[in-house]
Amino acid sequence: MTDRDVGERLLLYRDARGWSQEWTAKEAGVSPTTITHIETGQNRNPRRVTLRRLARAFGVSVDEFLSDRPPKGGGPSLLERPLRSEAGHAYLALGPDGNLRDAEAMSVPEILSRINDLIAEREYLLILNTAKEFPKDTARARAEIKQLTHRFLPTYLELRSAAEKKGATVEMSAEELDKALAEIERKVGEALAREHAPV
């Protein structure tokens, strides 16, 4: 397994669980920056203790975590998560202007991490909106979900623009930035397609 594969495995496991980078960091007992650096290839050789913590968070051995086998499902389902428990929710609530203000003080990897958290939150909101089990105040919750979902695209565009303006940095080469933005663009395209797909 190449060093880059560790980041890809981590992303596969996060996607399989529907976990944001911040949630994964919390579950594993590592910093969100550690997750970002592993996934973007900035940390190409995570310490063994970090790998053990990540594997334990996903309920697998380190060997299983690093294997070529597809990740097993599990962990808390999206519907078990309260509406306001993830960072992505707070970021959507900030709206485009608030996120743009935050981005001025952020590094490019931090901006990309925030975009990934926004994508995860948007996916969660779309799933929650169609769930049979729903918060007690259904009308109010659905109105909040609709408002937050509509904030996603302008917020994403502002953050993407901020990342592109900052461009290549010490933390990330131009090639790495282009690759990360292309992957994010793919995820956003898939998310938008799912939202408008016939049920």
Describe the structure.
This protein has 199 residues and is an all-alpha fold. The chain has 9 helices and no strands. The protein has helices at 3-17, 21-28, 32-40, 48-58, 62-66, 87-104, 108-129, 138-166, 174-196. Helix 1 (3-17) packs across helix 3 and helix 7 (108-129) packs parallel to helix 9. Mean pLDDT is 78; it is low at 76-80. Helices cover 70% and strands 0% of the residues. It has 2 domains: 3-66, lambda repressor-like DNA-binding domains (434 Repressor (Amino-terminal Domain), Orthogonal Bundle); 79-196, no CATH class.
Question: Which characteristics define this entry?
Answer:
199 residues; 434 Repressor (Amino-terminal Domain); 9 helices; mainly alpha; globular
- Gyration radius, to the nearest Å? 17 Å
Percent range of helical residues = over 70%
- Tell me the distance between the termini: 39 Å
Q: Which blocks of ≥5 consecutive residues have pLDDT under 50?
A: 76-80
Number of domain modules: 2
Please outline the major beta sheet.
none
Helical element count? 9
Strand % is under 5%
- Shape type: globular
Order of helices and strands: HHHHHHHHH
Summed over residues and divided by their number, the pLDDT gives a mean of 78
β-strand number? 0
Structural class: mainly alpha
Outline of this structure?
The protein has 199 residues and is an all-alpha fold.
SSE blueprint and pairings:
Blueprint (H helix, E strand, L loop, with lengths): L2 H15 L3 H8 L3 H9 L7 H11 L3 H5 L20 H18 L3 H22 L8 H29 L7 H23 L3
